[in-house]
Amino acid sequence: MKEKNIIGNYESLRTLDYDEMNEHLDQLQTFTEQAPIGYTTFHYPIRHFTYGTGENHVILTAGTHSVELITNCFLIHFMEELDQNPNLVDPNLFTLHFIPILNPEGTIILTSALRTVIPRTCTPFYEELTCLQYYMNSRLEDEYALKKDDHGNKLQMQMFRYADANCIDPKHKELRKSVQKLITSLPEGVMITWSSNGVGVDLNANIEHPRYEEEVLKKIPVYHELRLNQISKTTPGPVGCPFRGDAFSLEPENQALLNFYHSLIQTEKVVGSLIYHACGNQIVYLDEKYGISKEEAEYNRKIALAYQEMTKYDVLVQSRPTTMDYILKTKLPGTILIELGDIRSTPLSQFISCIHSVYDHILEDNQKAIIKTIHTMAHTIKR
Ligand SMILES: [Zn+2]
Fold first, then answer.
1. How far is the CA of 383 from the centre of ligand 1 (A)?
2. pLDDT tens-place string over residues 51-87
3. CA-CA distance, 191 to 272, in Å (whole number)?
4. Is the pTM of this model over 0.90?
5. Å from CA of 352 to ligand 1 middle
6. What is the CATH number of the domain that holds 322?
7. Is residue 336, in this structure, part of any structural domain at all?
8. Distance from residue 283's CA to the centre of ligand 1 (Å)
């Protein structure tokens, strides 16, 4: 671990916008790009890359919640490391399936807003300072929400108050129109908090009989907490809304993901999957409470503990069955959800280096953890 401080050693920008992510992915040499697992409402491909041709298949996904930008950046960084150092993972033993941008529309919205304040041309040090400013503003707003019951404008969103639909490149015409419509009744700067897809549905909440189903159907607002307490989770928008319209429908991103898991499990030896979210420094697995076998629960726990060994993250048992990641855990033993970073406030705080080397730890510890965990999967599951 290279300890870094505020004075320097910031080599390049850490945040990637949607186009940059795709440019990085296009340059991979040892990976094979497969057909997209599917397309979003506004026709963006959900890209799928494989590394290796071994019998042990593992799925890795990032960016369900686009505001958790660190997950996309981490996974793409790991792919690049693997591309440069193929000795890290034996390609004859594993086939790794990477879906590094699970929610392309959300990522376009979020990173378009991000670039209004952190342009590509700024220095890495300016980026670090802006991330710090965002973090401190978020902390203050959390405190005001708790102590003063404050529901007013938020400083961290105010930083991004000039980010409206116009900051999205005109080439994304349909998406822009949709965002324009969604944000008219929302606070200024709200695009920097965008977790949902381009129609304002939160992909992790998008399951049948979700939490707050009745409130959604009756159009009763349920407000988010702390620094997001002026945003409703039951109306299409940046966060939490489980479906659009008057009845449940599965979003195309989730349909694609479920089809992908299903067909891969049918045809290959899939030993597990790693689903990245942020933040909390946590690893969440499924135990017997939800009807899986004792053996499956033990396997899940073993995988979670293997991941913990390299990250020291807390290991938790799944607490709520109302998320897409829960559904995926029930479909594939060895599936864990990982919450990157112990610093609050996405999308920017996880890119800070001068506080406990948060960013560097995320990148380095999780890389080691993936390698350790997939080997544990392969050794445990034999055919
Ligand atoms: Zn999340």
1. 34
2. 999 999 999 999 999 999 999 999 999 999 999 998 9
3. 33
4. yes
5. 19
6. 3.40.630.10
7. yes
8. 12
